[in-house]
Amino acid sequence: MAAFRYTHAVVCRLPLSLASRGGVDAEAAREQHERLVRLLRELGLDVVELPADEALPESAFVEDTAVVCNGTALIARPGAEHRRRETDTIRVVLKKELDLPIIEMSDANARLDGGDVLFTGREFFVGLSQWSNEGGARAVAAAFPEYPCTPLKVPESKHLKTLITMGGPDLLCVGAGKEAQEVLKRMEREATYRYETLTLPEDEAANVLYLNGTLVHRSIEEIPQSFKVFGDKIDYPRRSINVCQLAKLSCGLSSSCLLVRRTRHLRNL
What we know:
Blueprint: E1 8-12, H1 26-42, E2 46-50, E3 66-69, E4 72-75, H2 86-97, E5 102-103, E6 117-119, E7 124-128, H3 134-143, E8 149-153, H4 160-163, E9 164-168, E10 171-175, H5 178-190, E11 196-200, E12 209-211, E13 214-218, H6 224-233, E14 238-241, E15 258-260, H7 263-267
Parallel strand pairs: 1-2, 4-5, 7-8, 10-11, 13-14
Antiparallel strand pairs: 1-15, 3-4, 6-7, 9-10, 12-13
């Protein structure tokens, strides 16, 4: 499915100031981030790597700054006010370096973290959390009118993609916990299309990356039971990586990269 074919990834090196947030071992987190960047390159992506910004401790979690689909970028408005400056750099990179059309959110009261936006390849779901609101969901719907867009209530302290991500074409990865299962039921009621579901014993295993035909999930040390489920149920290439430190302050794998399919790049291949 073309929706999960990507040409580029935008990442931001991890600032050591991240250690001021949530008991993170910043050096270990930086090593994990560097391994993730190497993995993205191994999977065929051109990686645009931004320098660390010590003034913005959470800037490595670039997923929250924009929603990119079909070669167009909607600049988000993170719900945490101290993170809003992160969008300035991302806007420049997407516009100047990757030559993407940029859409801005017009509603001053709209709030949107990219970690609350799930694109299934057929439709959008937007989690209504402490970081994203109805105005943010309307901005996604307006930016990508060719796709249905459904707002979903999620636990206030969780991003939607902490609970559910795409593990392959039409395949939802979801944790077995009560919160994740309740969100899944809402999603299934509201969805325009039908999806298969892979339920994982550890909730933290649900945040995966599916790109260019490969599923990237967390390591056996972090999710031993779910690692076995992936091995038993997934018949396409898989890669695993430990992101235990990064995940203390983010959705997990998806938070640290902004995946882009640059259509002009594809035409020139």
